[in-house]
């Protein structure tokens, strides 16, 4: 940033916009569609042209999010493999070979997961439990501890923030544990009934 002092303002704006975008459409959708709405919810729209328009708006951000997650994961694996060798910061055959192999592997794993999970709702539950608990909760609680570990209880304000981050960590561990278990149990229950076979082009928005 040009002015690092503006970071709290930028974070507050980001949090406000994110909360609005995640809460308002979901609340409106489930208010009018009920608990048996499809996942994603706009799959329940009655007019086919509305569905196509909605999916058109979703395709681009979905690809962007996929690319971001793949690159973050790929960069972590890449640095673990190449370390501080000259290949990690130079254009070499080994450098590009490792990067391409990592990207192909990540997207293949993503494709397999997307195909073998029977319902879109199960897929979203699994992803949010396994990954959003880290990106949205655990990361920030750990970051707070690392930045303030010498002064966690120095004042009433610090103590309040510390206890709040302990609560955040507890919530995140609940999302990572019981919620992940529930998501897997839901997939097992779906496969015990009649579901669309894996690796087909059939609609899984149920």
Fraction in helix = over 70%
Largest sheet: none
Question: For the CA atoms, what is the radius of gyration?
Answer: 21 Å
* Termini separation: 43 Å
Structure summary, number of beta strands = 0
Q: In what range is the share of β-strand residues?
A: under 5%
General description of the model:
The chain is mostly helical. It folds into 2 domains: 48-116, no CATH class; 118-206. Helices cover 73% and strands 0% of the residues. It has 6 helices and no strands. The protein has helices spanning 7-33, 48-82, 93-116, 120-148, 156-176, 178-192. The longest helix is centred in the first third of the chain and has 35 residues, at 48-82. The mean pLDDT is 84.
């Amino acid at each position: 940033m040009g002015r690092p002092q503006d970071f709290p303002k930028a974070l507050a704006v980001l949090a406000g916009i994110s909360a609005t975008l995640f809460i308002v459409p979901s609340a409106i959708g489930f208010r009018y569609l009920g608990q048996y709405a499809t996942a994603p919810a706009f799959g329940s729209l009655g007019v086919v042209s509305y569905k196509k328009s909605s999916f058109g708006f979703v395709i681009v951000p979905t690809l962007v999010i996929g690319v971001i997650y793949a690159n973050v994961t790929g960069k972590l694996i890449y640095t673990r493999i190449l370390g501080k060798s000259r290949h990690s910061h130079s254009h070499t055959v080994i450098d590009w070979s490792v990067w391409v192999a990592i990207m192909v592997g990540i997207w293949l794993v993503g494709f397999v997961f997307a195909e073998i999970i029977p319902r879109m709702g199960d897929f979203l539950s699994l992803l949010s439990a396994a990954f959003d608990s880290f990106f949205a909760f655990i990361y920030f609680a750990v970051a707070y501890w690392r930045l303030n570990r010498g002064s966690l209880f120095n004042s009433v304000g610090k103590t309040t923030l510390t206890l709040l981050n302990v609560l955040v960590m507890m919530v995140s561990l609940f999302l990572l544990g019981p919620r992940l278990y529930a998501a897997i149990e839901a997939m097992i229950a779906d496969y015990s009934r009649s579901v669309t076979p894996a690796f087909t082009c059939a609609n899984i928005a149920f």
